[in-house]
Amino acid sequence: MLGALAIGVLIVAVVAINQLGPRATGTLKDPGIEYPAALLDGTTIGNADAPVTLEVWEDFQCPVCARHSLSVEPVIVERYVKPGTLRIVHHDLAFLGHGTPDESETAASGAICANKQDKYWDYTHWIYNNQDGENAGGFRPERVKAIAEAAGVDVTDWDACVADPAVLAEVRATTQQGVGLGVNSTPTMLINGTLVDPPGLKSPDELGALIEQAAASASPAP
Question: Chain centroid to CA 194: how far?
Answer without folding.
Answer: 22
